[in-house]
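Notebook entry, structure prediction.
Reason for the run: the old model in the group folder had no record of what sequence produced it. Starting over properly, with the input documented here first.
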Amino acid sequence: GEEVWESSQGGLQPHTRPLATSWPELGGPVEAALRLYHQQHPQEHQSLYLFQAWPRAAGRGQRAASGEQVWAYAGGQLRPGFPRRIGDEFPGVPGGVDAAVECYPEDCGGETVLFFKGDTVYSFDLALRVTKPRVWPGLGPCSAALRWLERYYCLRGTHFHRFDPLTGKVHIGYPRDLRDYFIPCPGRGHGQGNASWGDAGDRCSEMPFQAFLSDDTGRIYAFRGGLSFRLDSWRDGYHAWPLGQTWPELEGEVDAAFAWDGRTYLIQGSQVSIFLSEQGHRRVLGYPRALQEELGVPSADAAFTCPGSAHLYLITGDRIRLVDLTQMPRHVGEPVLLPHDHVDGAMCTNDGVFLFRGPSYHQYSSVAQLLGAQQPAPPQSIATHFFHCPQ
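New structure, fully documented this time:
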C-alpha cells in the first residue's frame, strides 16, 4: 500500500511510516524497489529506484503521470529528470514489473539488474544497456527480490526462495517463512535462534566457538556446533546458519579455518575442505582430503593467516607452528611455545591477532608480539565486542 516498514538488527520490532514521509513525490504504492550498484557511473551508484505501474493525477507542480514510471533518489533527494518511463531508463524492460534486484559483477559477470514480471526475468546489462528476457519456471513469480550477504532471494507472500542469479535455480531447503528471517515477528524469528540449536544458535551465549575466519574479501565468520555466524555485517543482524547454507555439502563442526589466495580452508578433524571464496564458496574438486597430505599435520585446534601473507600458523595445544603455503609439498616448522595452554580458535586481521578461548578473546598487535609474549593478553568478551551483546 502506501506504507513502508522498516526492520533493524537486534530483534527489534519493525515499525511503519507513510511512504510520503521519505518520498513525498510518489503519492501512491510502489510495485518494486531497487538500490543500484553501478560503480562506473557515480551519479547512479547507490541510487534508489522506486517503480510504479498505475495512473495517478498530477500533484501541485507535477506533470500528470500515467502508465509505468520509475523514480530515482540519491541521498534522499529526487534526481533531476525523474520520474521517467521505465522503458526510457531501462530500455527493453516492460512496465508493470513485480520486483527488481541488482546483480553484482562477481555474481553475474557484469553489472546487471534482474527485473521480474510473472514467470519472466529481464536481465538488464548496465554497461551495454540491453535487456535479455529469460524464463525461470522453477522460481515462479516474485513479489519482491533482494540481495543480502551475497545471496539472492525471491519473496512471495510470507515465503521466500534463495536462487542462483545466473540460472534461476532454487536452492535446496526452500521456500522458507519470511517471518522467521527478515521480519522479526512476536514468537518467531530465525535471528533469535532456532530452538533446536540451543545455546549454539544464541549469539550472546557464552558457549565456546570452535573456529573463526577472516577471508580475503573481508568477510568474518564464527563457527560453533555445526553453525556459522557472519560478523562483519552487523547491521544485517547476527543470524546463525547451518554450514551447508554458505559452504555447500559441508556438515558437522569446524575445528579450524583460514583463508589464502582466494580460497577458504575449513578443517574438520583429520580432513580439510577448500572452497573458492569468490565463486559462491564452491568446493574445489577432490576435497575433502587428508590434512596430513595438504598441510603436513594430522590435526589442528586453530589456524590463521594474516592479510597479504602466505604464512599459515597452526596451533595445537600450547604450541604454534609455521607453514609456508607457497612451498609444495608443505612442511611445518618447529613448534614455538604459546602463553596459552589451549585455544579454541584464532584469527588475524588488520587489527592484529585474536586468540579465542571459552567466552573470551585475547588480542595481540602482531604475530611477533604473540610469539614474544610471556603472559596472555588481557581477556575480553567475545559476545560484547564481536556480537554487540549487552554487558
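Summary: Residues 56-66 have pLDDT under 50 and may be disordered.
The old model has been moved to the deprecated folder.
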